[in-house]
Amino acid sequence: MCVLRSQHIVLRAMNRTRTAISVASGVTSGSGNTLDAPYIRTIEWDMMDKAKFFPLSMLSSFSVRCCLFPLTVIKTQLQVQYKSDVYKGMFDCAYKIYRSEGISGLYRGFWISSVQIVSGVFYISTYEGVRHILNDIGAGHRVKALIAGGCASLVGQTIIVPFDVISQHAMVLGMAVHAGAKSDLNPLGIKTGPGRSRLNISIDIAKEIMQRDGFRGFYRGYTASLMAYVPNSAMWWAFYHLYQDELCRICPPWVSHLLIQCVAGSLGGFTTTILTNPLDIVRARLQVQRLESMRVAFQELWREEKLNCFFKGLSARLVQSAAFSFSIILGYETIKRISVDERYKHQIHPERAKAKKNCNIVYI
């Protein structure tokens, strides 16, 4: 009798388990039938229509950069100043630039820097391509994100560094108005004035770099850029997936998954910015102040700032990184949803996000 009762209990437990598995691995259609279609959290490269993805991705990236570029200008000027002799902080910097140059002063070097839209296509293609390769060898989703993020940054920086060098020289030219005759703010001796257009100034910067250093001058600070941005990108994607997993675990089921992704991106940006801030300052100084090497740049930075080097320009970088990460992920994940192949659309429908805690969430 006891044996029969035990078997009955086991059978009931197995039935409950089958029911739970059925609910977790399927979605309910309008007729009440359950379809075997697990909820996909990460839309992979082979699930998307590239003809839709690339143009929308470039448009999204350009829009985000248009809105947030002033933060890049503020961050760069804060990083290259000596201690706090020009600006007292982020708001003081923004106010002084706006007062002396207007809105255009906050967009110094914008059109040169906007070439990053093209490098962004190579960046995201490399990221998704490396993820796809690692997926074939069975790597975990966080490992894929870490390695792919580093590889993507390597490709992106190789393309963008020459334009970044020109752009940063253009960004800091306006600092002389506030700092007086500071020679290190215009080491190339570029002539500026009311009659000179931004295009002419950018061309002069490029010509002067070529005359002084040759083609190698456009890759000044390249090693520092790799040391700053490759770990930054790798860690950002890894932290992005880490925070996303944790937020999905603790957030109520009704919270939008897209919102969770955007918040995870911002948190990832905060974390990587704090960890890599001194490297970014060294990179900026190498490219703008034309210092001899990373060692010299580190020595100069430590001599001027001591422990404050870990916090120099950090507030502007944190605001920029959080806003940029949130906006980029909002655009990136939305565009992936728009570009996804018809075969997978029923598996990423927004309604499924409401039941994500009861779904079999798949990393592919």
From TrEMBL:
InterPro entries: MCP (IPR002067), MCP_dom_sf (IPR023395), MCP_transmembrane (IPR018108), SLC25A44 (IPR042164)
GO terms assigned for molecular function: branched-chain amino acid transmembrane transporter activity
Compartments it resides in: Membrane
One GO CC term on file: membrane
Keywords assigned by UniProt, alphabetized: Membrane, Repeat, Transmembrane, Transport
GO biological process: branched-chain amino acid catabolic process
Protein topology in the membrane: Multi-pass membrane protein
Family matches, as Pfam families: Mito_carr
Transmembrane regions: none
Coarse class of the protein's main subcellular location: membrane
Mapped Solcar repeat ranges: 48-133, 140-246, 256-338
Classification via Gene3D superfamilies: Mitochondrial carrier domain
Top-level taxon of the source organism: Eukaryota
Family: Belongs to the mitochondrial carrier (TC 2.A.29) family.
Name this protein carries in UniProt: Solute carrier family 25 member 44
Classification of source organism: Eukaryota, Metazoa, Ecdysozoa, Arthropoda, Hexapoda
